[in-house]
């Protein structure tokens, strides 16, 4: 019984530490946040923080890793033919549940690590299969195609987050799928036949 209470305490402590960081990141950049700031805001001592994380960067990285682990889990649980709707909806609902974190990761971070992670996930999810591209797009161009699709999805999600999620996740699924269909139609009908077999 003591173990369960201990685990609950650890989970609660991590939760308030994460909430503290997110609150601080509303008005500051990550490089401006100190462990002291996080501890003061969470009303914990530094030793408690250091029992779980090295610094603010480690904490943010941990939060990002948890989010992406959940996305990878969704991918492994979802049949490929349901990626268009079911998987995309699960991911968008996860983003909505973690709105504050996702605003920081998608809208405010100025590096390409998010895009690189999403491209890795897209490769893992076999986006060629999702978009029926495996028979049409030359294999040597598939990396460009995946970057194009993922980049477009990120841009839509970023706009959605910046506008404070006015549409439901289901509506955003429709938007992404509509744009993807239009895009695929344009690529197929364009004069860029050198991209195809």
TrEMBL record:
The keyword Lipoprotein does not apply. Gene3D superfamilies: Tetracycline Repressor, domain 2. One of its GO terms (molecular function) is DNA binding. PROSITE patterns: HTH_TETR_2. It comes from the Bacteria. Residues 11-71 form the HTH tetR-type domain. Residues 34-53 bind DNA. Keywords: DNA-binding. InterPro entries: Homeodomain-like_sf, HTH-type_Tx_Regulator, HTH_TetR, TetR_C_Firmicutes. This is HTH tetR-type domain-containing protein. The lineage of its organism: Bacteria, Bacillati, Bacillota, Clostridia, Eubacteriales.
């Amino acid at each position: 019984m003591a173990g369960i209470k201990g685990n609950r305490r650890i989970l609660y402590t991590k939760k308030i530490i994460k909430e503290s960081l997110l609150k601080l990141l509303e008005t500051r950049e990550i490089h401006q946040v100190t462990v002291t700031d996080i501890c003061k805001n969470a009303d914990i001592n530094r030793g408690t923080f250091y029992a779980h994380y090295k610094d603010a960067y480690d904490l943010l990285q941990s939060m990002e890793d948890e989010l992406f682990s959940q996305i990878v889990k969704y991918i492994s649980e979802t049949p490929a033919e349901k990626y268009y709707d079911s998987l995309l909806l699960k991911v968008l609902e996860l983003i909505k549940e973690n709105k504050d974190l996702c605003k920081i990761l998608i809208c405010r971070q100025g590096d390409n690590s998010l895009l690189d992670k999403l491209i890795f996930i897209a490769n893992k999810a076999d986006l060629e299969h999702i978009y029926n591209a495996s028979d049409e797009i030359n294999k040597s161009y598939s990396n460009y195609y995946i970057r194009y699709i993922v980049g477009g999805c990120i841009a839509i999600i970023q706009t959605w987050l910046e506008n404070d999620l006015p549409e439901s996740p289901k509506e955003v699924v429709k938007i992404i799928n509509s744009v993807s269909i239009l895009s695929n139609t344009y690529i197929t009908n364009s004069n860029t036949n050198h991209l195809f077999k």
